[in-house]
Write a structure and sequence with these properties.
The chain has 355 residues and is an all-alpha fold. It contains 17 helices and no strands. Among the domains are: 105 residues; 94 residues, no CATH class. This is SCY1-like protein 2.
Length: 355
């Protein structure tokens, strides 16, 4: 036969003593009686006395291994959240319960219930600060606890950073706080560095796209030679005064006739005035006459393109006169000073002596 245990009336201090030593009682209790012993624990959460409720949470931290998962999720966790919300138990004791039941909760339950609870705790007393820091340090050891990088950056670190200048912390507590903060920062750095590296690999950077732009640049496109069928391109060459005269003559027959007549006229003049050319004074007079003939020549004519000028020794006509009016052959080949360098024509186009 079974009979209820711990059903007799007890004082507050007697109940607190039993709860604080419940783990020792369970070690002495046979397994078939464990359920009856734990029932006293569950009833203590409903006690109106703060000491009894606080002792019940102390018992949970000691006998977690005896509790079933359903009891932790459906009884202990709701009572824990309610005690934090209503401040109906000692905060230091409540914070001791969190790491004990943390590994028995689902990840989503931790994210929804435990993480917000850690941010609501007042971190003024060094004992509370140390307990919260230890919970974060435990959660940093495994991703199953749901402590994400985003939560570290937006909630955990902002709540812990002001405590770095808390004058109540001793050196050991301060070092513990700094180590956890540094561990969080390292996790943030590692996660963001990897993320940004993957983003840079997926998106082409300017340095990586430069060879592609250079490859398809118009400077590197080899276009075949421009070719139009049945099109003939001739290069234009600069023509001399004699070539222009030859092209503008009336015909090959008239040009050859004029040349022959000029040669005959030169021979007859040379025979007639042979003695005169031999005297020094005659040579000087002829030189002056020729020089006076070309008084209007430009200096550029001597430097740009020297024309070939044929001078008739016995020519007495004016430089600008025509063979028909001056009685002589004139200047067979001559450029007029008003003719530009782009258009060079011989002055004997229509100056052939009459036949």
């Amino acid at each position: 036969s079974h009979r209820p245990l711990f059903t007799n009336r007890k004082s507050i201090q007697g109940t607190v003593t039993l709860l604080e030593n419940l783990h020792i009682i369970l070690e002495k209790t046979p397994q078939e009686y464990e359920r009856e012993v734990l029932s006293m624990l569950y009833m203590s959460f409903e006690n109106s006395t703060v000491q009894v409720r606080t002792a019940a949470f102390v018992a949970v931290a000691h006998v977690t291994n005896y509790l079933e998962d359903d009891a932790i999720r459906n009884v202990v966790l709701p009572k824990l959240l309610d005690a934090f919300e209503n401040n109906s138990a000692n905060a230091r004791v409540l914070m001791d319960v969190v790491p004990c039941i943390l590994c028995r909760l689902e990840k989503q339950k931790i994210i929804d219930c435990i993480l917000p609870l850690l941010c609501k705790v007042k971190l003024q007393e060094p004992e509370i600060v140390v307990r919260v820091v230890n919970i974060y340090r435990l959660m940093l050891t495994d991703k199953k606890y749901g402590l994400s990088v985003n939560w570290m950056a937006t909630h955990a670190m902002p709540s812990l950073l002001p405590q770095t200048v808390n004058p109540k912390l001793n050196l050991e507590q301060f070092i513990l706080l700094l180590e956890v903060l540094q561990d969080m920062l390292n996790n943030i750095e590692r996660n963001q560095r990897n993320k940004l590296t993957l983003d840079n690999l997926s998106l082409p950077s300017p340095d990586k796209s430069r060879p592609l732009r250079h490859q398809y640049s118009t400077d590197n496109v080899h276009v075949p030679a421009f070719n139009i069928p049945n099109l003939r391109i001739e290069q234009r060459k600069t023509s001399s005064a004699e070539d222009m005269a030859r092209k503008n003559s009336f015909g090959s027959g008239s040009l050859s006739t004029a040349s022959a007549e000029n040669m005959v006229r030169k021979s007859s003049m040379a025979a007639m005035f042979g003695g005169w050319f031999n005297s020094p004074s005659a040579n000087d007079s002829n030189f002056l006459r020729v020089a006076n003939t070309f008084t209007s020549r430009r200096l550029s004519d001597n430097t740009l393109m020297t024309p070939k000028i044929r001078i008739a020794p016995s020519c007495a006509s004016s430089p600008g006169g025509t063979p028909g009016t001056g009685g002589g052959g004139g200047l067979p080949i001559r450029r007029h000073s008003s003719t530009g360098p782009q258009e060079r024509r011989g002055s004997n186009i229509n100056l052939s002596p009459p036949t």
